[in-house]
């Protein structure tokens, strides 16, 4: 009975901490995170031009998460978690022990996001049988020319075949797995939105039409779609800026941090290059880091001047009227 109360009580404590901190401007933490992101690897098979990993802009070392590190951390924090995201930068299915990570995440609602190039019939069957709750598959075009304009080195035929493999396996085993097709809307593919809607409906998946984050300001104009709902940026005084007032609060710092492949704890998924390391799980427990001075100081900086934090300047938390 007590075990079943831990997660809902933790949600209340985390929520209360966030509300109190936002109202007073003083960071407090009474609970543990509700969700966690775990980066299995920051390597990728694609070279997407506005991705930190694929574009080569990432400066941190490349590698793969140690399953023992993951298991130790999950043993500590999974009693509090409702959700685990087994992805951050890179392609998680490149990890040779990918399915072992799935097996050790079954105590929480688990989500994987993939570019869809490794969804063979065999892997699709394993995914469906693994207990994974949600699979996000990126599909940013319906023909090779449009798809590869962003997904450099990718093959849309392979991805579409992978989607069929997963949906067929799901149907065959009557799996409750939720499949989400993610379509990153940009100037080159926005005309294909009606077609992708039909495709997703035909396979009984869900569709997320997502605005595009652009890392290089010089490239924003060439990627921005004509449809304003998908424009994350607006032109002000000759410069593109995010359509976000960046209020001095962000629930991510109270609810869902990220663990990089090498055990660093960072504040959120917008810290692509791990510039704001709150602690190292190779040396400290998660709770010591979560309640520690670095995290407290960083939360304080968000509450007093979020617009001054570099990683926040591309953040969608607080963004209104845009598909994020």
Estimated radius of gyration: 20 Å
Element order, helices and strands?
A: HEHHEHEHEHHEHEHEEHEEEHH
Mean pLDDT: 93
Distance between the termini: 38 Å
- Percent range for helical residues? 25-40%
Number of strands: 11
**What oligomerization state is this entry in?**
single chain
Shape, per Cα inertia axes: globular
The count of helical stretches stands at 12
Derived structural class: alpha/beta
**Major sheet:** 9 strands, mixed
Neighbour order of strands in the largest sheet: 6-5-4-3-2-1-9-10-11
Question: Which residue ranges are poorly predicted, with pLDDT under 50 across at least 5 consecutive positions?
Answer: none
Note the beta-strand portion: 5-15%
In short:
The chain is 35% helix and 14% strand. By secondary structure, it is α/β, with parallel strands linked by helices.
Task: Give me the secondary-structure topology.
Blueprint: H1 2-24, E1 35-38, H2 52-55, H3 67-77, E2 83-85, H4 98-103, E3 109-114, H5 121-130, E4 134-138, H6 144-150, H7 156-173, E5 178-184, H8 193-202, E6 206-210, H9 220-223, E7 233-236, E8 239-242, H10 252-255, E9 258-259, E10 264-266, E11 279-280, H11 286-290, H12 293-305
């Amino acid at each position: 009975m007590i075990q079943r109360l831990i997660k809902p009580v933790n949600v209340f404590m985390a929520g209360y901490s966030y509300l109190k901190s936002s109202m007073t401007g003083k960071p407090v933490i009474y609970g543990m995170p509700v969700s966690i992101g775990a980066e299995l690897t920051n390597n990728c098979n694609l070279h997407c031009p506005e991705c930190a990993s694929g574009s080569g802009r990432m400066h941190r070392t490349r590698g793969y998460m140690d399953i023992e590190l993951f298991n130790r951390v999950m043993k500590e924090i999974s009693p509090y978690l409702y959700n685990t995201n087994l992805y951050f930068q890179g392609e998680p299915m490149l990890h040779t022990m990918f399915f072992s990570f799935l097996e050790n995440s079954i105590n929480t609602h688990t989500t994987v996001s993939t570019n869809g190039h490794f969804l063979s019939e065999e892997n699709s069957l394993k995914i469906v049988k693994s207990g994974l709750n949600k699979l996000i598959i990126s599909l940013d075009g319906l023909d090779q020319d449009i798809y590869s304009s962003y997904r450099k080195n990718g093959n849309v035929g392979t991805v579409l075949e992978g989607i069929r493999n997963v949906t067929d396996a799901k149907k065959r085993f009557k799996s409750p797995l939720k499949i989400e097709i993610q379509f990153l809307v940009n100037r080159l593919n926005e005309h294909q939105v009606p077609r992708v809607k039909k495709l997703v409906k035909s396979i009984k998946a869900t569709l997320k039409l997502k605005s595009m984050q652009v890392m290089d300001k010089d490239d924003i104009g060439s990627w921005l779609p004509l449809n304003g709902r998908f424009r994350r940026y607006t032109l002000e005084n000759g410069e593109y800026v995010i359509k976000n007032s960046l209020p001095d609060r962000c629930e991510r710092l109270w609810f869902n941090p990220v663990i990089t492949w090498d055990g660093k704890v960072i504040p959120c998924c917008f810290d692509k290059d791990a510039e704001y390391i709150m602690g190292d799980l190779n040396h400290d427990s998660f709770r010591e880091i979560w309640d520690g001075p670095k995290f407290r100081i960083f939360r304080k900086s968000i509450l007093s001047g979020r617009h001054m934090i570099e990683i926040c300047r591309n953040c969608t938390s607080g963004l209104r009227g845009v598909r994020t």
